[in-house]
Predict the structure.
Amino acid sequence: MEITIEAFERLPQDRCQLVDIRRAEEFARGSIPGAVNIPEDVLLEDPRLRRDKRVVLYCRRGEFSQAAADDLRDAGYDAWSLQDGYNGWLLERMRRAEAGEVQRQVEESIRKKFHKRVFSAFTKAVREYALVLPGDRVAVCISGGKDSMLMAKLFQELQRHNKFPFEVRFLVMDPGYAPPNRALIEENARLLGVPVVIRESQIFDSVYHVEKNPCYLCARMRRGHLYRFAQEMGCNKIALGHHFDDVIETTLMGMLWGGQVQTMMPKLHSTNFPGMELIRPLYLVREADIKAWRDYNGLRFLQCACRFTDTCSLEGTESRSKRAETKRLIRELKKTNPAVEQNIFRSMENVCLDTVIAYKTHGEKRHFLDAYDASACEDEC
């Protein structure tokens, strides 16, 4: 019977005994803290071996300790072999040291190099749109991309400095990722020190054979699952990683392809999950700054990982979607008008209803002719 290093570390230390079965000279050169050295050939004869505790054995690579654990179990001991032995423990310690260094560098970059461009923009949105309030428990939804991973680190930083109490949970909803994509998400969470909770679903299977608007259906289903999982975790808000560029692109896409003027809001009440809200804390953070943070720290994230776009599962692959087309259009407009991005964003804050032909509010359409004659009489008076 084998036990992993992570599982061993979760055991109550007062209820287990760690035994190094290597030779004494090997033990002297290095050992796992807390281990007692009882060489394999005298294992059953040594009075230090405890019957009242779980005995975890290890050798150099986990080969001999597995056979020794089987012998002890036959003798009535609750014996286990530490998977991969002492060498595995050393490698895991090195991996953790590496992760600690990556995490330290990433957090330092947020506090220093990217403080104004990223963290200040993040906190401005939180304040300006009242996204996080005292007593909130926020489910930070992580898709595996650069935006949501940065958002997770910004929330950790916000908790260190905020003046009122709130809680965060880091939620990964797996809709059916390919194993390499799932592994990349888990590895990035480990490197960045983000304690993710992973919940499973089979959304990709459900929409794979849908011919009409599969992406729309997938997005709706994923949103619903996120709300449900967050609610089960005791959260009252879900945080999504949409940034400034997403906002202006959505605004322009609605006009050019949807024939409507609307934008991506910084927060929304859920209609299907009472008491739940959706917030977008990266609302004022530019995508270029997110990319700069990623590249500065040498990080690698998913771009998209659904079965319809397996060829662009890693960042750097050009997409032919309407959003990508809108990005290219904005880039072209910016060549002659450097303020075009900020102007698109501000246009949604400066809507003059007196010069709009029609608009909707609470699902009801209003037309300028409805009050046209009445307003003329008021002007004359």
Summary: The first strand starts at residue 2 and ends at 3. The CA atoms of residues 71 and 180 lie 38 Å apart. The chain has 14 helices and 13 strands. The mean pLDDT is 89.
